[in-house]
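Example record for the data management plan.
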Amino acid sequence: MTLDEGLTLRITGVEPGDEIAGARKVTIATTRGAIPLMIHSAPEKGHAVLCVSGAIGGFDGPAMLYSRLGLEMPRRGLTIARLDYRAPNEFGECLVDAMAALTLLGGIGHERVALIGHSFGGAVAINAGTLSPIVTTVIALSSQLAGAHVVGELAPKPLLLIHGGADTILSHQSSQALYDRAGEPKTLKILPGVGHGLAEPDNPSEVFELVSDWLLQKT
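Corresponding structural encoding:
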């Protein structure tokens, strides 16, 4: 696998690990190091979601959104994969990680995969969405602009942008700019009074409903 940045990676193996709270921990062994995933499997293969976090990495996403998706969406037919970066905040390396995880998901029978990214991860998701043929839709939460310059190349894959109107880390104008540059179909949701982590009272449930409804329709 070679990206425009000149980064090359080869998957050398997949190592299944322990089951934790209904998820199987999987390690993708590569020539650039080990990539950790948590996979919540649906009964049937075919449709999956890959979740990537912000610059500091981790499995859970904003307001524990990714873990909630992992608990609830498999029984609705969607496998949820949660990625932790090898090298957080290194954009090229994180993009390679996402592409490797998409390759794995495709290799185990998932023909349609949605991508979700938060903050820094929003740009990772947008980039990976333009590169992978199995990606059907992208959701970018509180996304940064840096690294997301290719957003115009994502169409005709649907794009959902969600941003808090009170975000003091990345202004909602970032998602507005991405929306303006993106092709159709695209949707922008600005949530009044909500910050970067989307964690205000009652807001995590609103974001979960927005995201889960979109995934069920677009994946």
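Summary line stored alongside the record: The CA atoms of residues 49 and 80 lie 5 Å apart.
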